[in-house]
Protein 1
Amino acid sequence: MILHPPDEPALCDAVRAETRVLPFAGRTKPALSTSEGVTLLDLRAFSGIVEYEPTEYTFTARAATPLRDVAALLASHGQYLPFDPPLANAGATLAGSVAAAMSGPGRLRYGGIRDFLIGIRWVDGSGQIVRGGGKVVKNAAGFDFPKLFTGSLGRLGILTELSFKVFPAPEARQSIAITCSSLPDAIEKIAHLSAQSWEVEAAEIFPGPPIRILARFMGDAPALASRIDRIAASFGPAAQLLSNHEAASFWDPLNDLILPGTDALSPLVKVPTTLHRLPALDTALTSIGAIRHYSMAGNLALISSPDAPALDATLSNLALSGLRLRGPGPVRPGTPNASLMESRVSSALDPLRKFLPLSTP
């Protein structure tokens, strides 16, 4: 059953009346917006900017506000969300991105979505309205609920309003493609990039073939122009400066979470990892025929595999845990990472068990 609450009072009534509920809006991550035996709550009515203070670099918006609307508003004032929120073009919303902890390549330099979320308003398991954090950038006493709700998947409460801090948009960007002889070579070059004072905004590994690193730099136009040639020269003939059009052919599909050889409906799992674990992971993914991409300087794997059981087993064997965004299979493939602390937090915020468990497989 799907309910369409038009406002917060109706949403509170629905939470109180139903046995178990799961919210959704944009459905750009379909594996997270459906489950058997629950009442689905369509929050698309919860859309719109509540407050925006360009001089304070903060805004507050309702939960189902599309990211593309936010991006357009911020751009009109020369501002942006530096963590490159994925799936903006596809219709992803603010609350959905927070609930699934969705951050793009820009997270490498500035941090992820949890670092820009400063306040939330939500409906708890008893159908009450609760607030956490604030609408301005300042220290606040009490629990840091905004960070707690990042990645909660609608399992701790239903977000209705969110406040973010934003940054001035960069004047210029420049991308460099670096061809690598092997994955170990790519890992070595990524490590070299990360150790320099070049202020790398984003660094992605495309396993290919050919294996390539895509690195993006930003700043004021004159300063960027004076250093980008030196950066490229440090990698020799393997490095190629890309035009804006050439760079967009790489970055745009990444924002839509479309890996080479896949489309917007292909299965997709994101897996936090580390640079030194990539060789073993890549070998295992190759053996099951999975398409993969390594984001955030090798700290996040994006994996597309039609064989969900094989991917689940592969991640379990490597003691890795993922989150399924598209396609059939367990929501959390790999090694379960639920903890006693998660259980206690869930019990405190949802004593009546209105929401799905955090450890839902």
Protein 2
Amino acid sequence: MNNFVRRAFEKIDKLSIDEIKTLVGYQASENELLGKVCESVDMGIVVISESGRVLYCNMESRRLLPLSRTLAEGASIKWALGDPDVAQFFAEALDNGSTLADPVKEFNFQRGEWTRTLEITYSYFDSEVDQVFKHDIGTRHIFFIRDVSDHKRQEARLHRSESLASLTTVAAGVAHEIKNPLASIGIHLQLLRKAFHRKQSLTKEDAKRYLDIIDEEIERLNAIVVDFLFAVRPMDVHLRLESINRILNELCVFVEPELAEHKITIKMNLGSFLPKVLIDENLIKQASLNIIKNAMNAMEHTGGYLTVTTKLEQDHVLLSFTDTGIGMSEQTLSKIFEPYFTTKSTGSGLGLTMVFKVVKEHNGEVNVSSHLGEGTTFTISLPVPKSERMVIEDKGEA
């Protein structure tokens, strides 16, 4: 309520009839403007009273919501909604209000060959006018309905494009990797053939050295195929609200003895009162372990320090792994997440590719900063769920 209206209400007993008419006209004009704005936006808006009656609904809400009967002011929202899942979300919001676990939810509806996706966001407010007039109409429950079908389809197309580009890169890596074992198999088959032609017959001992190498190369080819399937197959991700500090603490305790053997001291700087994040614990542990092993290799001959840090930054929890190792050049830094790229004499070159893939599956980001001779920092950014953001805001207000 603006200051002009507030002051007028406070002095309403002293206003003349004409002044009251002017005030009512002003409010009517404001309401008309608000109504036109609400009707012109490309989202549905529904306001519901504590008793479950519709106080306001615009035309877009009638078009978007699945209805079993007409949605109009005064109607019961319980009987107007035609989809049981949407009706349940509305009912939970009305019952739980500010304690609703997830105030944003998506619903899919099949319309012929197309899937329509609605995003419904819940909010609420208690009017200041109630306090001025010293009466309690109760909490107003507000629902915003958006059709996000096009956005979801664009996301799917982008994801397919990224997957295709990634598959092309991985396929090129596989083609490069299989050349050497295939060449080795071909060479030793030729040698075996020449030996047989020269001696007309071969004992088991004569053939064993050729066959052993061929067998090793076949195993190597099999490992390449297994790694390739890991790189291109979708991950089976099971997200749950978990404490990232607990997970990192357990992991650091696990790797500390191995790090100590390499004269590496681990330091933990974990932030206090961090919100929980939606993660797959096993995958996050594996990704973090790959980064730690990468740091261990960077300090293999010199020893040093590995610092693990967590903190809250706006709507994201940040995990940082900082080592005092040899660092990387800009050229190396630009390629570290590419499949089969490695600076080590051994290894598949898929460790950091796995890290990148895991973080993306969690809708997060991974960034790396490094300087030759100074060390490297890997930073993973994970989004805080909206339900956890509300908890943070409530604590802040308290």
Protein 3
Amino acid sequence: MVAERKFIKEKVKRMLVKEFIMKEIEGAGFGGLDIQRTPMGTRLSMLVERPGLVIGRGGANINKLSKELIEKFELDNPQIEIQEVGSNAALNAQIMAEKLAEALERGWHFRRAGHATVKRIMDAGAKGCQVIISGKLTGERHRTEKFTEGHIKYCGETVKEVMDEGYAVAKLKPGILGVKVRIMKPDAKLPDEIHIKTIEETKVEEKKEEKKPAGTKLSDVKELGPSVVKKLEKAGIETIEELYDMSVEEIASIEGINEKVAKTLKEKLGKIIKEVK
């Protein structure tokens, strides 16, 4: 039971860290947090809508946040990595849940706010979404309202793979309203979706496999971080050699990677290639 207790304690600690960060950067559009232990310390990859509010002038806010994480949670050398959501903010469930909660606090009627959120998500290209608002909506009694459009999955392993969920609360005079947003993203692939390849498609894939350069896979390099690797692989880049041949402008043009991250990657790539070889 010692090992199980250790895992549970670690998971609880991560949840407390996430809640603490969400509270500290309120208003910056928190979109998610990935905590990973590395030989250099603890890497915290944070997805936000407004990075400037998190970093602060001269990095004052982020330095303060790092110190508080060490003092309150005893994290080993926390290294905070800030990533901007960009144009995909409407497909991030956590950001949309917070925006909906803010709209309710500003006095929007819950039906108007719910339908507006669903419309914005679906217009962004989502396969489906569901908004749930619960609390004292119109009277003294608690009730729940659901706004659903498109395709939604509710249970099973598929939910973990294709559904993105976000939670937030709106503090109003009658009481607190709970907000939950569930989104099925445009690139979600369901188990029952079958695509039969044509002979032409098979030939094209075979040619691509033949042309693929031999090199070190991005996933084998821990310094890059899993979130950055996913974005690069989505853009069709599979080896660090391919990435090294690209300019800073080309790397920055990849969705989810800004110019600052691109410059940092470019600086580290030469060193990483030498170490690998």
Protein 4
Amino acid sequence: MSIKSEEEKVKGTIYAAFEAGKNRNFGVLSRIHVDDGRFSKFGENPPYEMQDVRDALVLEEMGFASLSGYDYQIQNIKISLIDKVAIATFVLNYSGVLVDNTTFEGRSIKVRSRVTFVLTKNDSDWLIIHEHLSRVPDEHIKT
């Protein structure tokens, strides 16, 4: 299989993660993450501790469920393939209305984050084994 087609498969997995949130199809998330004890995540929202796959998926689902009108854009994606490992770095812009489930009030958000995903090849599929997101502070976003 060519490097370009493997890169497209990696991109497909990355986009599937964000499309799952946009379409509220959370079952996809468990199918595209490694679930054998090796997964780890550092998120851009509390809690800031390292998360395992169970905690990460619960928090992702809660986050997506609280965000109405979620939309995203991936920019400057770079994928490096090393045997059965892929390192993907990109800028993620996302927006929506964050709804407080106790007051049912919403506030618009627009976020820019630097993201690194590490994926591993499992048969013909690429699965996410590590995620690291770091929000770009508002004062550093060029408009």
